[in-house]
Specification:
The complex is a heterodimer of chains A (about 290) and B (about 525).
Chain A lengths: L1 H8 L19 H5 L6 H8 L3 H19 L1 H12 L3 H12 L6 H12 L5 H8 L13 H29 L3 H9 L4 H26 L10 H8 L5 H4 L2 H11 L3 H30 L5
Chain B lengths: L1 H46 L8 E7 L12 H10 L1 E7 L5 H8 L5 E4 L2 H4 L8 H8 L7 H7 L16 H6 L8 E6 H6 L8 H14 L4 E5 L6 H7 L5 E4 L2 E4 L4 H15 L13 H9 L3 E7 L2 H8 L7 E3 L10 E3 L6 E4 L6 H12 L1 H9 L6 E4 L3 E4 L6 H7 L11 H7 L6 H10 L2 E3 L1 H4 L8 H21 L4 H18 L1 H23 L1
Classes of the chains: A mainly alpha (about 290), B alpha/beta (about 525).
């Protein structure tokens, strides 16, 4: 509690600079002494010609990640639980969660090695089979960015989240499966009537957490890292998001007040999302996070 | 009862922690502002001992991630330490946001070497040269033009930035050729296509077409990500930043020459001479490697591109040459520069006197020549014609690193000094330098138009520049010329919406008095 108070809540006071004209050269004192600016930074953000694009990219990328990345660990956990061969099960599980430990910088390097139009092995392979005439511009085509971001994020994180659902599966009473089997229930019926209801609680908790962190990329996270590393001037109309914009404005240009206003707006949206999703989950299933 | 006591203790501990942290911050900032001179005196006395005692150690942050030197070692740094009694402890930035964070946290080193003139020229961060030099080195007199171009709105100058020389200095040094953008070509490939004369951009197109036809696996042109368009801008006579049009200032985007240059780059892409992926590269070492490994025929860089590529292609054996002559009558260079890197003495500097002595030496002729060229008589000799002749390969980074020569002279080098370092009769760099000196004019008053950080004009300028960074690739990669023109017009519209006209009106207002001041000192 003390730790949270000192390191999380007290520094949050710095948010006040979103409503001030803070100059970086005034240091910590400037947080208190800078003149008030009211909502001018928020107005500037809303009038910024980039704003609609940034909001669209942030929301679409986040929604796509939730839609495609949320069900995959659940399905993968169910599939793994059905594997009878212990060695295969453990091997697949280990291989699938190992990418979680690779940094995004390395994943970006791997993406370049695979998808580069001049030296990527995917393009070389497709060209050698005469399936394409020109190399595919996966890394630079704006229309390819969202797909690239979602697929690489799933590859990196799905295996890791599978562990949560495997733990939830371990909590299901084995006698339920035995009874169902004795009653002649097929494997599919056992999954539908025992496994899926058994995962309901964990799924809802993970879903609420996912929606709460949706603007950061949800379950698989990393919107910021991906936009910074896989984004470039050619695909920027699809790769630039609110967070990268705040980073560029705040640190590269030293406009900390404006950058804080951008991030604050994103945080407010996130808080609204987490409370709404919790309320909806409570109403629909009776389960909620708080 | 027990619980409430525990809660009380926790609350008090939290308050003490927070209070302690805040008071530490405030004490720090107060002391840093006032105590530096006292400490400076005490330690400074020890510093002026010409190396008989341990040298004064000063922390120095280099705000340039690409800086080739990471530490203060080699015979040249040792000679500088011996002469000044100062040994800098170097930290080179690991990312370009690091300095901003250091400033925000108040955790500054003794000296900052940075291009960020606007951020560092602030009385809250740096000490003004016009106060510390008269106090600790009264004999030092800077050129009034250099003082003027470095003076900010509070009337102080916080650095004398490098790479700037007055027009008079340039004219007095016929062997000094200002750095200009360049185009480097693979010599064997050029010969392979029949060594055609390239006198115009049309000739250049023909050469690219011939390369594409004869060497289909080779990319005819590779663009350095930091030097994508400047070479072509020069051929059309387009300026960067602000430009003087009949006494009024207009932003470069509005110039017809800029439009032509952007459309030319688009034609290069449409003709298949440049790949689309080239515009996604962020690091020039990637493109340099592509050239060194034989993937490209031509490469945009500076006038020393060929010499630098030749130095790094020793193993591959490829030979590079510069396209030395300007391509057509429109080609021109307007030098508006007022300097680049500055050495800023921070408010936190713990030994101002020693720092000033260190800077005094580096700004002196003996000092910067030693730092930049090496020991006179041993590493270089002065040719009577007026340029240095080196006894080592100045393009070979390994040699420079071993000696510790050149890069610690860069922050205080003059424009002429830097240019003389590159002079070598008959070299590719010199061939282009000589040709482009003929089409170069000077107007530093334009470079002095700099909006204050956080001012409305600065916000407009950075917003326009950020917008251009992403939108300009739409011009470059447009599938037809008509679409490229449309994309260019779209950029202009967006720039207008951001406030380009307002920026130009403000800049025109500044320009008149600045030009008057500059002219009064030079004419």
């Amino acid at each position: 509690m003390l730790f949270l108070l000192v390191f999380s809540y007290i520094p949050m006071f710095g948010i006040v600079i979103a409503f001030k004209n803070y100059k970086i050269s005034t240091g910590i004192d400037g947080i208190f002494s800078s003149p008030w600016a009211g909502l001018s930074h928020f107005k500037e953000l809303i009038n910024d010609y980039n704003f609609p694009m940034l909001v669209r990219n942030t929301l679409v990328l986040s929604l796509l990640k939730i839609i495609f990345s949320y069900p995959i660990p659940i399905l993968f956990a169910i599939l793994l639980s059905e594997v009878r061969h212990v060695f295969v099960k453990r091997f697949v599980q280990t291989v699938s969660y190992l990418p979680h430990f690779i940094s995004w910088v390395v994943v970006t390097g791997i993406s370049f090695a695979f998808f580069s139009s001049s030296f990527g092995i995917v393009n070389d392979f497709l060209l050698s089979l005469h399936l394409i005439k020109e190399p595919l511009s996966i890394l630079t085509d704006p229309d390819a960015f969202w797909g690239l971001a979602v697929s690489t994020a799933i590859w990196k994180e799905a295996g890791w989240w599978t562990i949560i659902f495997l733990a939830a599966l371990a909590g299901i009473d084995p006698s339920l499966y035995e009874a169902a089997e004795m009653d002649g229930a097929s494997r599919l019926k056992r999954i539908i009537h025992i496994t899926l209801p058994g995962l309901k609680g964990a799924s809802i908790v993970v879903l609420i957490l996912t929606i709460g962190s949706m603007l950061g990329g949800g379950l698989v996270g990393s919107n910021f890292e991906q936009s910074m590393l896989l984004g470039n001037t050619i695909n920027s109309e699809k790769s630039q998001i609110i967070q990268t914009y705040a980073f560029t404005i705040g640190l590269a240009q030293g406009r900390f007040s404006f950058a804080t206003a951008i991030d604050l707006m994103q945080s407010v949206i996130s808080v609204i999302l987490i409370f709404s999703s919790n309320a909806i989950a409570k109403r629909l299933s009776g389960n909620g996070l708080f | 009862m027990h619980k409430s006591y525990r809660l009380l203790i926790v609350m008090i501990a939290a308050l003490l922690l927070v209070g302690g942290a805040l008071s530490a911050c405030s004490n720090n900032s107060v002391n840093n502002g006032t105590a530096s001179t006292n400490i400076g005196k005490a330690e400074g006395e020890a510093a002026g001992n010409n190396g008989t005692e341990a040298p004064v150690e000063l922390t120095m942050f280099v705000d340039a991630t690409w800086y080739p030197f990471q530490d203060w070692k080699g015979e040249i740094p040792e000679a500088i330490t011996k002469a000044t009694g100062v040994k800098p402890k170097i930290t080179v930035a690991t990312d370009d946001k690091q300095l901003a964070l250091m400033v925000a946290s108040g955790d500054l080193p003794d000296i900052v070497v940075s291009f960020n003139f606007k951020l560092m020229s602030d009385g809250n961060i740096s000490l003004p040269y016009n106060e510390i030099f008269p106090k600790y080195a009264p004999s030092v007199k800077f050129d009034p033009v250099k003082e003027l171009v470095n003076t900010v709105s509070d009337g102080n100058y916080y650095a004398i930035r490098n790479d700037f020389s007055t027009e008079a200095e340039w004219k007095a040094s016929p062997y000094a050729h200002m750095m200009v953008p360049g185009l480097t070509l693979r010599k064997d490939i050029l010969e392979g296509i029949g060594n055609p004369a390239i006198k115009t951009l049309e000739d250049l197109d023909k050469a690219f077409a011939a390369v594409k036809e004869k060497y289909p696996d080779m990319t005819p042109l590779i663009l350095n990500p930091n030097w994508q368009r400047p070479y072509f801008d020069t051929q059309y006579g387009a300026a960067g930043g602000f430009a003087d049009k009949d006494g009024k200032i207009e932003y470069y985007l509005r110039q017809d020459a800029t439009r032509k240059s952007m459309l030319y780059v688009n034609s290069l892409y449409r003709n298949g001479y440049v790949t689309s992926e080239n515009f996604a590269y962020k690091n020039e070492s990637e493109t340099e490697q592509m050239m060194v490994s034989g993937k490209g025929f031509a490469y945009t860089w500076t006038y020393s591109g060929a010499d630098r590529l030749n130095a790094s292609s020793k193993d591959s054996g490829y030979e590079f040459i510069q396209l030395a002559e300007p391509l057509g009558a429109e080609a021109s260079v307007v030098s508006t520069g007022t300097g680049g890197l500055g050495m800023y003495v921070t408010k936190d500097n713990k030994n101002v006197e020693a720092t000033v002595k260190f800077l005094e030496y580096l700004y002196s002729e003996e000092g910067w020549r030693t730092a930049e060229w090496g020991i006179e008589g041993k590493d270089w000799t002065w040719n009577e014609a007026g340029y240095p002749e080196f006894n080592y390969n100045v393009q070979d980074l390994e040699t420079l690193k071993e000696k510790g020569v050149y890069w610690w002279g860069v922050p205080t080098e003059t424009g002429v000094g830097m240019a003389l370092s590159s002079y070598k009769s008959g070299s590719e760099t010199t061939r282009q330098g000589e040709a482009y000196s003929k089409i170069t004019t000077f107007n530093p008053a334009i470079g002095m138009i700099n909006p204050d950080t956080d001012s409305q004009e600065q916000i407009i300028r950075t917003n326009i520049d950020n917008m251009v960074k992403t939108e300009v690739t739409k011009v470059y990669l447009a599938p037809t010329e008509a679409e490229a023109v449309q994309a260019y017009e779209e950029i202009l519209k967006k720039a207008e919406k951001i406030g380009m006209s307002k920026l130009e009106a403000w800049a025109t207002e500044q320009y008149g008095p600045l030009k008057e001041k500059y002219d009064s000192l030079t004419k």
